[in-house]
Write a structure and sequence with these properties.
The protein is an alpha+beta fold and 184 residues long. 38% of the residues lie in helices and 28% in strands. Strands 1-6-5-4-3-2 form a 6-stranded antiparallel beta sheet, sandwiched between helices.
């Protein structure tokens, strides 16, 4: 019982609310890999030096040390790739799906998960054009969706846009450094 109370106290301090699926992963995969009729999930198991490299690039490495890329093909033609990136905020996790063209530019971004608390902020940010700001970015580019929204959205939407920027930055770094390990 003491552990339950301690867990509740920690959750209250962090005020993390339950997760909400905004877009199911399979739907995000289909939307970000248009025209694909086959999908292949490929994993890159990061060595300690690789995880450290990713951490230095974007102050992050996946909890389990594994990056997963989803490659889409139409027949023998690669139509693109995507990955999911999670950002843990004081209000709970936010997950983004970032799709890439065969040339390595961002095709699109979809916020797939948020929390009950952050969902309205995500919806406001997305409604203000956040995800369109990422199209065309390439590895090495810095996402700046939050800065652009500052004049068009409320403070909490701008805050969550900054968290989405982090997720996009993580996906760009992971793709730029490690996707070549998994080309189909």
């Amino acid at each position: 019982m003491n552990l339950v109370l301690r867990g509740a106290a920690i959750a209250a301090v962090l005020h993390i609310t339950p997760a909400v699926v905004l877009v199911k992963r399979p739907d995000a995969v289909r939307a970000l890999l248009p025209g694909a009729d086959a999908y292949v999930a490929r994993e890159v198991h990061l060595s300690d030096p690789d995880a450290h490299r990713l951490h230095e690039l974007v102050d992050w490495s996946p909890d389990d040390g594994v990056l997963t890329f989803y490659n889409g093909k139409a027949g023998a033609t690669v139509v693109g790739a995507l990955t999911f990136a999670r950002v843990d905020t004081p209000h709970g996790p936010v997950e983004v799906a970032v799709g890439f063209t065969p040339q390595g530019a961002v095709r699109g971004v979809i916020v797939t998960k948020a929390t009950v608390e952050t969902k309205p902020w995500v919806l406001e940010a997305v409604g203000a054009g956040l995800v369109e700001r990422y199209r065309g970015l390439k590895p090495g580019d810095v996402p700046a969706g939050a800065a652009v929204l500052a004049e068009h959205a409320g403070k909490l939407a701008v805050y969550i846009a900054g968290e989405v920027d982090k997720g996009v930055a993580r996906a760009l770094a992971a793709y730029g450094v490690f996707h070549n390990h998994v080309r189909a």
